[in-house]
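Quick one, T. Sequence first:
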Amino acid sequence: MFAKRIVVPLSVLTVGSAAAIAGVLNADAAEATACSVSYAVPSQWGTGFTGDIKITNSGGTAVEGWKLGFGFPAGQKLAGGWNGVFTQTGAQVTVADTGWNRTIAPGGQATVGFNGVWSGTNTAPTTFTLNGVTCTGGVPASSTPSAAASVAPTASATPTKTVSASPSKTVSATPTKTVSASASPAVTKGAENCTDFAALVRGKFWVNNNVWGKADGTGSQCVWENGLTGDSLSWGTSWTWAGDNTKVKSYASSVLGWHWGWKVPSGTGLPVRLSAGKPVTTNWNFQVTQNSGGVMNVAYDLWLHDKANPDWPDNPTDEVMVWLYKSGGAGPVGTKQATVSIGGATWDLYRGNIGWEVYSFVRTSNTSAAGLDLTDFTDELVARKWLAETKYLSSVQAGTEIFTGSGRLDTTAYSVQVG
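Structure tokens:
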């Protein structure tokens, strides 16, 4: 999962190192398909940890539908996963494809991730099977997570591949109110923090240096916060990422509410049930500077649960993204379903699944200033009977997904008010 590795024996494999197992996918065929599995722990905190798994088809035949199996050797427990359907029985874990990622082309990869619980030791699994056939081989290692990475897990359901929009019927939404964006105050840039998964708490918000997809590329990212003006946060991020331009490397963001746990346990106004009819008004003024051509977007990310008090083990049931800006051909997970009019702008609506439902509203023209009621977007999904109004909105995030390239995002003013 990391760019630089060294080969070490299994007996010295430690937390944060990657176990790669290479072998045979189909032992019955003379021209057996080779496969490899990489396992890494990019972050660990208290009794929890985040795991990344990469499955590589190094043979000449495509894998159509897959199921990965492995055992936790030290009693670890699965809390939830993404980009796959996870189940655990005793120590044994099974991960099945989600449908959209069922095919692994020759030379291609499928990447999944999860949150887990550990005690005593957090030893890495040593044996993996793919569709019932054992993969075996050498064990490369990577760097151990730094102590500063011991924060709440920072997994995100952002897309792992770019999907082109297909022509579809245009559906008009009921006209909704427009919330005006506020003016941008002058700010002084704060100190940078370039630690992976750094959390900068300011009032009810926290800035998350989320590099959840860094294993799919090389590079780095920094964040900073410039302080609050009233209820308005100023913050920024800079990045340099290379690698697969169809996979997200990072989502630096301002977080209000839940993100696999609670950094700020009160004062956010969240969670709130959709049926309560409370508005979630937001203003966001930002500037994008791209030093080199790349693939990226600037978007809100909303998380929903079917319970009123989700904690860090609780995966969301639904995710709603609202894209304000994109470049380099970035596209959301899923397929285009409609074009709608919300908040005085036109949006292409996509629907997909990565272990939970993902809905993406992609603005048909870029903007760097938004004044929106985010419930207008969830109302659209409720009206289509895709989203139940019994669900709880647990998190509102605003940030930039980076696939590749170099640049920075400066948020001069950002606010969210629930109710």
